[in-house]
Design a protein that fits this description.
mainly alpha; 72% helix; disordered C terminus
């Protein structure tokens, strides 16, 4: 039991490495949480720093989720361990111990986790989410669609109950972290992708 617990703790610490904060500090000497939407994630990195850094943050954050699930799979054959490690990595991203528990919304890391836990359900949900983003240009809407549909597709696909329950918890995480975005979506005031509406600033 010791190794699974250590893997979960390690996954949280890995998730707590906020690449958007580190890259923004390295490139511009700023705390990205004080710019744009204030979120430490790929979308705000895009708004503040541009496409290149945003892609880097997206990939690195997704890799945190992939690594966490891999570690969980290596230390135990129990289905719940990689699920718990993935959840821990996302919790670390959202509430990072290294950055005063002020992190991002965890979607890129969630993509990595869900793709590793059950690739095809995550892929199908991801395709629908991307189409929604292209159509409406709301990243937050796409994120909620992705995290909401994945557990449904997992259930249809016949995945283990622990994976389905874990992905459902990640949807709850996403709803909680996007609660302000949900309110703006309902009010019609949510920022669209590529728009600087709403006081978003870009550091040059």
């Amino acid at each position: 039991m010791t190794f699974p617990i250590l893997a979960i703790i390690g996954s949280y610490l890995l998730g707590s490495v906020s690449f958007s904060v580190l890259i923004a500090k390295w490139l511009k000497g700023i705390d990205i949480r004080h710019h744009g939407s204030g979120n430490a994630g790929a979308t705000n990195t895009l708004r503040v720093l541009g496409k290149g850094p945003a892609i880097g943050v997206l990939l690195l954050d997704a890799c945190k989720g992939i690594a966490a699930v891999l570690v969980g799979s290596l230390v135990s054959d129990a289905e719940w361990v990689p699920v718990a490690c993935g959840i821990a990595a996302i919790a670390g991203h959202n509430w990072p111990i290294f950055f005063r528990f002020r992190g991002g919304k965890g979607i890129a890391t969630t993509i990595g986790v869900l793709a590793m836990l059950s690739f095809f359900p995550a892929l199908f949900a991801g395709i629908i989410a991307i189409l929604a983003i292209v159509w409406k240009r709301y990243v937050s809407l796409g994120s909620l669609i992705f995290t909401g549909l994945t557990p449904i597709f997992m259930w249809i696909y016949g995945d283990d109950l622990s994976i389905i329950l874990g992905s459902t918890l990640l949807f709850i995480f996403a709803v909680y972290r996007h609660r302000t975005n949900i309110k703006k979506l309902l009010q019609g005031t949510e920022n669209r992708l590529g728009s600087n509406k709403g006081g978003v600033t870009r550091v040059r």
